[in-house]
Amino acid sequence: MDRETRIDVDADVIIRHIETAKEESLTVRGIECVWHWDDSSRDVAEYGAVADYLTYTFGNNIDWFCIKSWTGLPKREEG
Question: pLDDT at position 76, please?
Fold first, then answer.
């Protein structure tokens, strides 16, 4: 049995734009994450979901990012 929890993650991050070298603080909300209990910790799953979101959203337009904080809330089971 695959034990997993679906989580919505919110995070405060800093990104630096390549073109301008300016840093920008952002709050991102509602990043979907699936934590597979037997594969990693919940923290790793949530942090990884935020990092993936930033990579896919900004791609090669940012130099770096810093995830300052994040919170995750398990989604309610529908049915």
Answer: 80
Q: What is the mean pLDDT of residues 27-42?
A: 96
Query: Do residues 76 and 44 lie in contact, with contact meaning Cβ atoms separated by under 8 Å?
Result: no
79 band by pLDDT with thresholds 50, 70 and 90: low
Query: What's the pLDDT score for residue 2?
Result: 81
Residue 49 vs residues 1, 22, 42: alpha-carbon distances, Å = 23, 24, 11
Burial environment of residue 58 by CB neighbours within 10 A (0 to 12, 13 to 18, 19 or more):
middle
Which amino acid, residue 21?
A: A
Domain edges within the chain: 4-72
